[in-house]
Amino acid sequence: MIISVVAGARSTATINTEGRNVRDVEPDLQELEPSEAPLTQILSRLETVEASNMLVEWYEDQLLPDFDTLGAALGAADATMTVTNFAFYVYGDLVKVNDNEIVRVSATPTTVAVAIQRGYGNAALAAPNGARLFITGNAGMEGDGFRPSLTTQKVPRYNYCQKIETAIKWTEEEINTETFAGRDLPNEQDKAIIEQKKRYEKLFVHGMPNLDQTGAYPVRTFGGMLYYIQTNVKDVSAGFTEAEFEDFMRICFRYGGRHKLLFCSPKAIQSINAFSRGKLMTYTDDDSYGVTITEYKSAGRHIGLIEEPLLTNASLNDLTGIAGYAFLVDPMNVKKVDFRGKYGQTKLHENLQNPGDMFRVDAVRGTPSFKMFLDQTHGLLTGIND
After folding, report:
1. What's the pTM?
2. Which residue of 3, 58, 274, 336 has the fewest CB atoms within a 10 Å radius of its CB?
């Protein structure tokens, strides 16, 4: 055995010489084939946080509700109104009924029958069951003490970190064989990084959170965008027009930022291009996260249109299901998560084979997840087929 000695301090150059470096592939994960995995590319460029537990948790909160509906018809002479959600009201609240009369809540309710004083704005009028109730503010009586307290309860949300791996295996003879078109080992390493990125992309879109503890050790999967977007879902299978698109934007931009990203199936982006060419501008610069984005502007709203190739079926002529999807993401309310430790952040780990094996094994490994906050700031279009 030939002994090599190192004089002085050992450094990273020493490790490089020994061939023991673990390659950190996060930059490669962002750069290799960004158009094949645009969501992963963008999540990698946004804020990434480290998880100290395989269960990733967060809390969401909202302001007090403004709207409710009548649970029964209201007569013009009634001193109580039946509401749907009595917990929304406290003493002194002013409520606009059916976009007309304003009434005042005269006692904090304990049932759906809310005591009211009539005619605080416009004459007392009858209103049908299901009429809109709009809580506009409150009015206290002179000499009153403090108002009853009303706050919202924070809602816990969660996701899991998921172990994901792409492995490559070579015989020693294959590695050391001269080949055309470059060395096989680095080519396969780059391909493994791309494959890992595609796996992330599919899961970030289609994943479902699950914890399986039936085996020797737990298996966890994380939920994706389509799992967390539940509120602003619009079916346009009856006909996708610019008016329908604008209505979708109106709903989705009620909350959150003014710049959002719409990940479109190839069919969806084709349909949007057809009716809005005059409003589109394509750019690829520092603000585009490294992917090609076409910007759609309307009434101060900015939507970046991004083609998501994974929203297709096996047959490209099959436009059912996900082939007609487009999901809107508020980048202010998503975060990529990597579990801490050796196999948490995405890395290419080399020479994982057992010492006596006559082959080499490398693997790209990562344990990612993501957080999607405030469902109402995101949205989903379905049924785009024309």
Report:
1. 0.74
2. 3
